[in-house]
Amino acid sequence: MGNYENFDVEDFLCDEFFIKWVLKPEKELDLFWEEWRSKHPDREPVIVQAQKIARSIVIEPIDQQLSDAEVYSIIEYVEENSTDFLVQRSEEEFFPLQKTPRKHDRLHWFKIAASILFFIIAGIALNKMVSRKPASKLPPTEVGHLMSYLNNTGQSRLIRMSDGSLAVLKPNSKLTYPASFTGDKREVYLEGEAFFEVHKNHLRPFFVYAKNMVTKVLGTSFTVRAFTNDNEFKVVVNTGKVLVFNSKQAANQVFHSVTLVPNQEATFQRPLAQFKKDSVITPSVLSKEVAVKEFTFKNAALSTVISKLEQAYHVNIAYDEQRFGNATLTASLSNLPLDEKVKLIAKAINAQCDFTDGLIVIKENSAANQ
Description:
Blueprint: H1 9-13, H2 16-23, H3 27-39, H4 44-55, H5 68-80, E1 84-86, E2 99-101, H6 106-121, E3 141-143, E4 146-151, E5 157-160, E6 166-169, E7 173-178, E8 186-197, E9 206-210, E10 213-217, E11 221-226, E12 232-239, E13 242-246, E14 257-260, E15 264-269, E16 274-279, H7 288-294, E17 296-301, H8 302-313, E18 317-319, H9 321-324, E19 328-332, H10 338-348, E20 351-354, E21 360-364
Parallel strand pairs: 8-9, 18-21
Antiparallel strand pairs: 1-2, 3-4, 4-7, 5-6, 6-8, 7-8, 8-11, 9-10, 10-13, 11-12, 12-15, 13-14, 15-16, 17-19, 20-21
Helix pairs in contact: 2-6, 5-6
GO molecular function, one term: sigma factor antagonist activity
Domain FecR protein: 152-242
Protein name: FecR family protein
């Protein structure tokens, strides 16, 4: 038992005696906490909030050892059911007021999840050991309803999500996202850097959570950079309009948000917990006005088209140069997301394309040769 007079919500959630009372109440525990609460009425709101969070965790009994991926999924669930905060009214016209999950330090939340899990799974026989075979971390791994993709290669990888949105995941980066988006919003979690092309849906905004920075969009293209050891996080907008705000709220921390339009960027300064908004001096090749010129082709060699896509998106597109070396293309690709650009190119040269394991491959159309 701890010095409960000075406990906050998170301290209670890490206290085994408190968690045992909430999840497995006994007469002696009830007597203790009833007496303590009567002596400390000022702590009642903290107690009630901690009880709600602890009881919001629902985990089915298991018959095998928890894997690292399963523990990660539990931690995410704890975070998503913790205290929310309101997005400020100042952005209400474009981004309606709503609640957004508050992110806490992951190690601290692991302790909380572990305390709660101790009492949920105590007594369950863990007689099956999960076999762990060495495997490449390129293909996404499924954790319940979440997919987790770690790019530990030296090249960017393309991720296609269920709603049609794309993410070009940069090296040493990780993206966690639902296998299928449900509910009234689409949420993904980024560690590192990625370029997003979000499928427009005014009824279901798209959120990117990157450390203590959140980016909210309806349908646009932008880049988010948030590596763990960086002192600054950054969002750069190519097309559309986005709202960026800080998500980790401390008692003395002020809420900050900025709205960005094309060719603007926001830098989140971690020590100050503030945003700095700037214009991009040289517009990206994927910005609307530049893309119209760069991706409108007339009798262009396939190699030229592929090269421009690779440079713009920082990806590699594999194709048989001997087989398609003489192919040319006349088309405007400026308004299409990356995968649709590739599909159109493949169709124009009577080929097919494949996006397996984050790779982009244009290959001979097997159906046409049958």
